[in-house]
Amino acid sequence: MSITRRDAVALLAGASLLPTAALAVPKGLALSQDRFDRDRGWGDSSAAATMTLSAPGRSVATREMEIRVLETSGDGDLSITHFDTPRNLRGTKNQTHSFATAPDDQWIFLPEAGKVRRISSRNKSGAFLVSEFTFEDLSSFKVAKYDYTYEGAETVNGVSCHVVGQVPRYAHTGYSKVTVWLDEAHLRPLQTAFFDRRGKHFKTMTFDAYEVYEGRFWRAHAVEMSNLTNGKVTRMDFTDFRFGIGLSPREFDPARLG
After folding, report:
1. Are 136 and 153 in contact (CB under 8 A)?
2. What is the C-alpha to C-alpha distance for residues 191 and 69, in angstroms, rounded to an integer?
3. Residue 164 CB-density burial (10 A; 0-12 exposed, 13-18 middle, 19+ buried)
4. Cα separation values, 122 from 105, 106, 199, Å
5. Eight-class DSSP state of 170
6. CA 9 vs CA 37, 144, 216: distances in Å
7. 59, 65, 82, 103: which has the fewest C-beta neighbours closer than 10 Å?
8. What average pLDDT does this structure show over 137-143?
């Protein structure tokens, strides 16, 4: 599903004649399409990341990794995460091929087992290596994955934001709804609320320390997922973003993970 910027503007202009409830759907879709369009054309990128896991009454655990992403001209982007530390995870690799409406393809290589294992789409709501992120959260944003509503305007840490509701259209999701706060200036996500299958808000993700690359691509250097049910928090700190590093689709062949 894709609409041009001109279509989005026309959609919003014409929607002004509709009742408020009807207006919410096209406005939420148009903002989400604009968000997606603004972050296309970067080609490929890599970044170093440190994952910090904390839980009440437990010591903090850290993991270091490298993430590489390849943008494609078709439906699905490709990404691979390679763990460097701790020792028991060194060499572990996770690969995701994100699609719009078809189930994402995901694989994981565990050095101890010495095998590449495909992750079933039925298990995408499972925790990613004991963190508060799920395999589902690792998929790149695609407009056609959701139905949208515009839920108004609010501020997050003093920043004016559009609030957009997203209901997953794909199967085997762990979420009944996702609400995203997009800053009005750049349509960057600043906060995301996740609702479980019973409709209860149980996780919140925040984005901070944004920097712009290549003059137009914004990347958050700190992303934190907080579980409101168990008090656990997983934080991702990113450094060394690089673009145009020359990745090719061959490097994302699942057979090369092992």
Report:
1. no
2. 22
3. buried
4. 11, 11, 20
5. S
6. 13, 19, 21
7. 59
8. 89
Q: How far is CA 223 from the centre of its chain?
A: 10
**The tokens 């079933």 sit on which residue?**
120
* Cα–Cα dist 215/39, whole Å: 11
8 A C-beta contact, residue 183 and residue 190 = yes
Cβ atoms 84, 78 nearer than 8 A: no
Specify the residue for token string 């694989």.
107
φ, ψ of residue 190 in degrees (nearest 5): -105, -25
Torsion of CA 109, 113, 119, 124, to 10 degrees: -90
Rounded Cα distance, 92 and 196, in Å: 29
Quote the CA–CA distance of 191 and 248 in Å, as a whole number. 32
User: How far is residue 75's CA from residue 175's CA, in Å, rounded to a whole number?
Assistant: 23
Among the four given CATH numbers 3.60.40.10, 1.10.10.10, 2.60.200.20, 2.50.20.10, the one describing domain 62-138+243-256: 2.50.20.10
* 3-class state of residue 230 by DSSP: coil
The band of 106, judged by pLDDT with boundaries at 50, 70 and 90, is very high
Average pLDDT on 150-165 reads 98
Output the six-digit token pair for 84.
Answer: 């460097």
CB environment 14-48: b (16+ within 10 A), e (fewer): ebeeeeeeebbbbbbbbbbbbbbbebeeeebbbbe
